[in-house]
Amino acid sequence: MKHLTGISDLSDSDIRALLDQGHDYADALDRGDFRSDRLKGRVIVNMFLENSTRTRTSFEMAALRLSASLINWDAETSSLKKGESFSDTVRTLGAMHPDALVIRSAEYEAPHAVARIVECPVINAGDSWREHPTQALLDTLTLERHYKTRGLSGLTIAICGDVSHSRVAGSGMQIFSRLGAKVRVIAPPFLMPNKFPADGIETFTSLEEGLPGCDVVMMLRNQKERMNEDLIPGDAAFHRQYGLTHERLALANKNAVVMHPAPMNRGIEISDDVADDPQRSLIFTQMKNGVPARMAVLDLLVR
Ligand code: NCD
Known about the structure:
Elements: H1 12-31, E1 43-48, H2 54-65, E2 69-74, H3 86-95, E3 100-105, H4 110-117, E4 122-127, H5 133-147, E5 156-160, H6 167-178, E6 182-186, E7 202-204, H7 207-210, E8 216-219, H8 235-242, H9 246-249, E9 257-259, H10 272-275, H11 283-301
Parallel strand pairs: 1-2, 1-3, 3-4, 5-6, 5-8, 6-7, 8-9
Helix pairs in contact: 1-5, 1-11, 2-11, 5-6, 5-11
The structure holds N-carbamoyl-L-aspartate (NCD).
């Protein structure tokens, strides 16, 4: 495997190897004595053309934890603003021979386009609404660590809200199904995808119908920047119908956990008290696990 453009690039054994390596890194980070020279002397370029807090910083943390250097290329101060084309910009970065390029872009299959231009491994850090494979890996790592298991069989996972614009859902549906979970999508009809990247996904149009029997409830932000028109009737109305509150969470299985890739829009898709519930919310644990999951990806791809 040279690049990571999506979960669909990975064989079952690649997925297992990445997760196992992620667990090892997570254990080492938890012990608090982590030092590794694994990528000493390597230089990685972060190329983010969309805003990011977690993904960009955790790729940087992952690179530094492995002793690589990392350049945060900045779109705002780049020559894209002088009219340079995207492909010339990528050619320029490629000409400097980085050891890996991490790309986030709103353009469909931008990682594929970059991989055709540069010689180094290309890692997808979020491609349009299509795939966000490192988020799916960190979400799976979080669930395996929470349930102290390898694989997700026996779990029913509901992905809820704006699924049609979500690359997190696009990658999550694939990895969760491949690891043996039952996957449900709960979305209003106007945010329900018309096709799915995995077989056997069950669909529901209300939380009341979809949550009973679920072990994991993953909420998503309304990604208005990807909507061509204003599909959402209003934030308050959305919360009343599709917001995750404790009352609704009680419909899921006892001890069901809550996930969210964040950024959260509190009071819209999720209430404050659910987001901050120390017993039920894994949201900040997901953020923590972004580092070891991305360390595993860099470890595998960067030589
Ligand atoms: C998401 C993204 O950018 O795809 N966040 C993330 O990477 N953790 C989800 C979102 O923007 O809503």
